[in-house]
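Inputs:
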Amino acid sequence: MTSLSAKDKAAVKAFWAKASLKAGEVGADALGRMLVVYPQTKTYFAHWKDLSPGSAPVKKHGQTVMGGVADAVSKIDNLTAGLLSLSELHAFTLRVDPANFKILSHNILVVLAITFPDDFTPEVHVAMDKFLAALALALSEKYR
Amino acid sequence: MVEWTEQERSIITNIFANLDYEDVGSKALSRCLIVYPWTQRYFASFGNLYNADAIKTNPNIAAHGTKVLHGLDRAVKNMDNIKATYAELSVLHSEKLHVDPDNFKLLADCLTIVIAAKMGSAFSPDVQATFQKFLAVVVSALGRQYH
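Outputs:
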């Protein structure tokens, strides 16, 4: 896929300035949705007691994940280098199949649309979609 | 055969009962053309698609979005036989329109986003799951007659 243009980066940063205020909730909602809508993703969380939307482990982990996304926004000019250690974590320890990055990205976009219906315009949507795809690619770097 | 629970049926009928077809249809199609610009290849005769604003205000796109959404109506009314209901439409998209069936999923995703923005928190995880299941069946049926 294509790399991020200057226009994409500007759009992501501008939207993120607003969205970051609700990052934790967005992450929790997106993760909870993913576990319901794509039940195969539950296989990575068999060690949690409660996988329902709004549960404590889902909320906490949603915040962790969005913290990673926030970090990626600040490193948007070199995602591969910036996300190196996170890539190693996902590749060697977590071993999450990279197909799931796309699934979670989709759910993040759905929650952004719900949370910011007026700001999540088609132009912001395409920039965020590209950004999350680039993020996923950087996360996949160390897999093989 | 696809199995639908009573709850899933009522979720789908409720979404479509409260739908503004013109608004949602045009928004979903124009969003698809903006977010996935290669889909514009099927609309070369529709006029100005030069930038996002042109796409959003293009009356041909708006009309076509409405048409597509009314097409979904047929699936809502025939949930137990979507495959047969769409057999002719599938042939049309394959033989006449030559649409790459991968594009159906792209439009479905944009429709999901537009509906989510409209329904807000009413678009709960369960509603999302049901809606995406419905769209997946539609997408599969539309791709069925390709050869």
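Remarks. The mean pLDDT of chain B is 96. The radius of gyration of chain B is 15 Å.
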